[in-house]
Amino acid sequence: MNSGDGDHQHPTPEPGPGRPPRIPVPRASVEDTGRPLPDLPDAPVPVLEHRVLKSLLGAWALAACSPEETAAVEEHLGDCGGCADEALRLREAVGLLHPAESLDLDPSLRARVLQGCLERRPPRIPVPEWAAPYDAETARLDALLQDFGDAEWHAPVRLRWFRKDEPTSRRTTVAGVIAHLLTVDGMVAVALGLPDPLGEVSADRPTPSARTEAYWRASHFPPTRAVRAPWREQTHDLVRTVSFTGGGTGALSVPYGDFELPLRDALLDRAFECWVHAEDIAEAVDYPYEPPSGSDLHHMVDLAARMLPSVLSARRQAGLASPPPPGRRRLVTAGEPGRSLRLEIEGSGGGEWLIPLDSPAAVGSAEHEVAHVALDGAEFCRLAAGHVPPAEAAAGQVGDRQAIRDVLFAAASLSRM
């Protein structure tokens, strides 16, 4: 350390009695001096007998040899055809013992790891069960975005949904999709008393599509990767807020402009849309993306099935669905059984739902079942997202064809931008 009077320095005291041992100054690495590194001589390849080299072939195939042994074996294989053939057979056998595995993680891995951790040490403030799908899907999408460069953030994405009975779409980018999720998740944030990402602009923007268009227009430039940080922070704030309330806010109403959902269903709706748009993003950058875990997928299907009677009734009032048969046109009292369609969901997240056809006030009834539709769970969700045409969705159909058509188109009508 300089003493302050020019370049004079105090001499370093020599070690002695009562003084701490002298600590030498760290040596500078030759890699930091800019000088070329010295050339090191190649290690000599050991000369081994044929019988020794042949006995090492098994260890070599398993990559268990030392570097010197590996070099000796590989040099020998270039000269000995018999050992080369034997080495090839051993390598093929090792390949059968250790088949190649995909580098993409199992989508249920995160859920299994968390479950194992929570079984050992429960969280001090647990996430409500109805908020867990949103927590999982936002985390999966955030992991997908982690290593995106500028090219990926500006990759074109086409958002797809159904308007009435016609497919429609809107072109944006990966960053634009995250901006869309940010603004629509903001509706849940406002219901919880959290800041609105739209600020004062949101006062006259009650619907998801209107909010998204307003956010896009307010941007001086197309959205960039910078949108990830506020979206990510907002997802954490939502999960943290509902967790600190102990899950008691589940019945809180979240307005969507044309309709309202209780908070527990609104967060499930946001989890569903997060997964759907994550698939849109993954498709745009040519990357595989798996559906949600079976339990989360089941909850998403259940939400859509519970919304179908109201959507079917609204479509009927708009002239987009067939009216009930003459004998069923009277008003149905709440809780009364009525004509029903059995919706069977196969595969992960599967189950069965009886969908009342004549009125949202009716209840599904197996005795009044007039049709049966079977679909895969992920396929049904893609239908509800407007990504699959209704005419191509059902894997199996039995019964009243008009009722089946009405329900499939009602499912597609659940979609929106």
UniProtKB/TrEMBL annotation:
The keyword Transcription regulation applies. Residues 1-42 are annotated as: Disordered. Residues 12-24 have a biased composition (Pro residues). Residues 135-282 form the Mycothiol-dependent maleylpyruvate isomerase metal-binding domain. Residues 1-11 have a biased composition (Basic and acidic residues). Keywords: Transcription, Transcription regulation. This is Zf-HC2 domain-containing protein.
